[in-house]
Structures are given as C-alpha cells and as structure tokens.
C-alpha cells in the first residue's frame, strides 16, 4: 500500500486517491484541424516508461484537488509531489525548464507522427521465436 503525500492534506493512504493518467500532456493548439487519427492519439496514446514518470492524481476523498506526482514505475518510489501548474521536477527533486502543465517537447500526443512503422514486421511464429527477448524481459 502506498502512502501518498497530498500537497494540501499531508500523507494519506492510497485508497483516498484516484490515478489521473500521464501529467504534462499538451492540449493541441488547433484541435479542430486534427485528423481522426491525430485526435485519437491525443486522447489515448500515452507514454509507458520504465522508471521516473510524471502522473496526475486526485485526492478524491480528501480535499478533492488534483496534483502531480513524479513516481518510479518500477519501485513505486514517490520522488516528488507538486501542485498542478508547476513545472515537472527532475528525479532529484529539482525543477526543470518546463513551465505550466504542458510539455513543450513534440510527442505522439500532439504531432500524430510518432506511431511505430510496422509495415516491415512479420507475425509468423518463426520470426517471433527466432528474435531474442530484450534485456530484462521475461518469456
């Protein structure tokens, strides 16, 4: 069980909170100009990183306020808790150059061009069994 430190209420049990997804996802500048694929990528495509990850959380049974958390997805170690609208701190707890809650980096949620190219891939059993698993993966 995680003990999450709400910026408004202090430390509380994780059952009082609801996960709100990836933090710092930039809203498209002109959403009406997006194709259906680009809009779907903005809504549903999120990073799934191993390690330090910025998340949004809601203290649903306490102050009912949203906040951001920097958490290690492997160890569940909470590295930083910070209010909405403030820049993401790095893993050591220092603030980065970003401002606001939106990321300034181009990513798949805003460009629509970061989807992997799978045109040359094969799904046959021979190609799958002959490919070694990435380091750290389990079979």
Question: What is the element layout, followed by pairings?
Answer:
Elements: E1 3-6, E2 10-13, E3 18-22, H1 36-44, E4 52-58, E5 66-72, E6 78-83, H2 108-111, H3 125-130
Antiparallel strand pairs: 1-2, 3-4, 4-5, 5-6
Concise structural overview:
This protein is α+β, with helices and mostly antiparallel strands and 139 residues long. It has three helices and six strands; from the N terminus they run βββαβββαα.
Task: Describe what this molecule looks like in 3D.
It is built from 3 helices and 6 strands; from the N terminus they run E-E-E-H-E-E-E-H-H. The protein is of the alpha+beta class. Strand 4 and strand 5 form a beta hairpin. The chain is globular. Residues 97-118 and 121-129 have low confidence and may be disordered.
* Percent in strands: 15-25%
Q: How many DSSP H or I helices?
A: 3
**Helix/strand structural class:** alpha+beta
> SSE order in H/E notation?
EEEHEEEHH
Terminal Cα separation, in Å? 28 Å
Shape call? globular
Q: Which stretches are low in confidence, meaning pLDDT under 50 for 5 or more residues running?
A: 97-118, 121-129
**Rounded to an integer, what's the Rg over CA atoms?**
18 Å
Q: Helical amount among residues, as a percent range?
A: 10-25%
The side-by-side strand order for the widest beta sheet comes to 3-4-5-6
Mean pLDDT: 77
Number of strands: 6
Q: Tell me about the largest β-sheet.
A: 4 strands, antiparallel
């Amino acid at each position: 069980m995680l003990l999450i430190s709400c910026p408004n209420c202090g430390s509380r049990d994780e059952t009082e909170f609801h996960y709100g997804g990836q933090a710092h996802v930039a809203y498209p500048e002109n959403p009406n100009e997006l194709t259906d694929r680009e809009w779907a990528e903005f809504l549903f495509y999120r990073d799934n990183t191993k390690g330090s990850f910025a998340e949004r959380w809601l203290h649903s049974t306490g102050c009912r306020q949203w906040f951001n958390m920097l958490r290690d997805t492997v160890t569940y170690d909470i590295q930083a808790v910070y209010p909405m609208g403030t820049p993401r701190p790095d893993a050591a707890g220092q603030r980065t150059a970003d401002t606001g809650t939106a990321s300034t980096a181009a990513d798949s949620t805003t460009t629509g061009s970061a989807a992997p190219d799978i045109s040359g891939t094969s799904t046959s059993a021979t190609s799958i069994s002959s490919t070694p698993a990435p380091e750290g993966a389990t079979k």
